[in-house]
Here is the input.
Amino acid sequence: MSSREKILSAVLQNQPAIVPLPDIGLFERKAVGTVQKFGAALSSIGGNINYINDLAEMNTLITAISGINGRVINLVKDLYINNAEVIIDDLTPHDLQNVELAILSAHFGVAENGAVWITEENMGHRVLPFICQHLVIVIHQKDIVPAMHEAYELLSRKPYDYGCFIAGPSKTADIEQSLVIGAHGPRSMTVFVLLTANN
Amino acid sequence: MENNVTADHADLAADFNKDKERVEWHDETLWWIRQKRDKNVHQIAEWEQLREAASQIKLNVLSNLNAYLQQFEANAKANGIQIHWAADAIEHNKIVHQLLKDTGVSKMVKSKSMLTEECGLNEYLAEHGIEVIDSDLGERIVQLAKEAPSHIVLPCIHKKKEEIGDLFHEYLGTPENMSDPQVLTEAARGHLREIFLTRRAALTGVNFAIAETGEFVVCTNEGNADMGAHLADIHIASMGIEKLLPERRHLGVFLRILTRSATGQPITTYSSHFKKPQNGKQIHIILVDNGRSVQLGREDFRNSLKCIRCGACMNTCPVYRRSGGHSYHAVVAGPIGSILSPNLDMKKYADLPFASTLCGSCTNVCPVKIDIHDQLYKWRQVIVKAGYAPAAKTAAMQVMSKTLSSPTLYHLSGKAGRWVLKHAPFAVNNRLNPWYKQRDMPEPPKESFGEWYKKNQAK
Here is the structure.
């Protein structure tokens, strides 16, 4: 008998009588996530937040992030950033090791925890939001959901090969519980929220 | 990992307690994390409903695991992920080794996986000439120190920054006596970046796997799992068979409770959903049993398989906080480790269910409502019946059972005890009496309740 059969038959023999799944629909409050709550959550986990009315405002704000003069990759549609690379399809993941700043779109943000949902199609390469020294994310104010329940409802509508909730900069507190920002991934994460007119 | 430990929890805890300052620090640090957990959890009005839902979902998983495993396998395969089954630790290690041989690599980078600790993977691969570097900062630190993690979420919580500074000075070339966490973390970042960029194989653990979609989720704060996996040609993900969830939307419940319970953060920095391999690359999942199907059959203990490895039970446990993770001489320490480990080896871990005050704090904080302290109590009975109880405890219990079952003996021994405490305190205030170690013996009452009652009733 293969290990597969061995495990499956032992499990079948030992699993108890079926316990029904609970109704988790009650957690979906159908409310709108507030941008204030999102911003507060993001700040509390070490992220930065900027509110803009127009993508063009980003150019000046971005220079303030780290005094960038290194390599910048910008994959946000309709955003023009000086001296930024915009096509990375022909590169290998390893070619991205010296990226100073990556500017990417995310599908939506989650108000309760400050996370954004970003999939491979936003990233160019999966490694980009991790290997860059600084990360900038752009979302629309209308795309902020209250909690993770609504987040899964929303993300299930669009297939992905790889996706990630990113909540703040890479961090660790493994040495005596002292919080250090910039473990292996970005040393900063800034979310630009494009405010929706009349909202 | 030390497999030849003969000292029990009490001995090892006594060892840890030799350094009073360190024990105080360890205690306070973990309690601080428990408080962060409370602060965060109390902001969620529906917290108790979430716990209940998580518990029910996990109970459903365990009750239908056979079908979910097959559903997950079929969906993951359809996504282009390769599935392997390992009945035990050794089979798991052999599968990893074979995959590395087939890929032609002798160096692998690994993110946190308690399962590979359980399987002794690093040691096995080292014996076969394969180098493994742990990439979680805490795990890298204990790896350099040639120690095992002492906590499932905070692997080097037992170490002081000065000791880490010494290790980094020796292995990573940081300046002597440098113990600033910022500087040390920066040094590790540089060192591990080089590893990520040069390793063609990466192994990660799995926090959740979804039967409905065939994807799996890995949670880290550092980003080390992603750095390793996305830069490698082959990504191996090792998971215990109990990690399944029925549907993806159930993650909405679990990602809300996991990190709030673990560190008091609202969510980990990265919650990565791996569904399909990158173009031209491979993802392999190893589904590991290693005693889990046996635990599933133990009615009193199967509940422990609901565990999502948040570590909240450790942070709150008064025994864990003051005895340190290594005193449990098991891969998973603390209250949850004390109910998981006896399933793997009842004799070796017979002391662990006794390393608890049964105060129940673990059960109260557990986000999936495992009845941890009840299970500790039940394990004690199983272990005593099986004849594995620690010798001193067995002898003491026999004396107590004799005394308590005879009124004459009971009254006599009460009298004797009060007489000794009053007239010969040195007989008990010494190192032979473990109760006296951290405490003073109480002032003896003049008379027993029985004696007092007799006198006062007569009035």
User: Anything to note?
Assistant: The domain at 44-135+200-293 of chain B is CATH 3.40.50.10420 (Rossmann fold).
